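Repro:
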Amino acid sequence: MSVLSEFKAFAVKGNVVDMAVGIIIGAAFGKIVSSFVGDVVMPPIGLLIGGVDFSDLAITLKAAEGNIPAVVLSYGKFIQTVLDFLIVAFAIFMGVKVINKLKRAEEAAPAAPTKDQELLSEIRDLLKAQQNK
């Protein structure tokens, strides 16, 4: 079996296709979450803390000299990234929690027995009653 045919067999397996779809949907979901965090959540948080934009927070370690740019420690971008991560992680946690709750509710409600199962139960009960006589 050639490498090309092995790769083709690997690439068309269901798991690989499912993984690819998951990655594509995950990337699109990531864009939605990033927009939610940056455009919806962070502006009110910035307003609550007095309009401070974390990404602008920095310490200049060495001022610019001629053609040499300044050396800047941009710790605000790091703080912003950590906050974004925490908000995204919390949103995913809440989503997974809701999905798990729905799964548990679905599993908790057992399906009603079918007519065949009811008939078999009646036959079983009749046979047990005959054996006990």
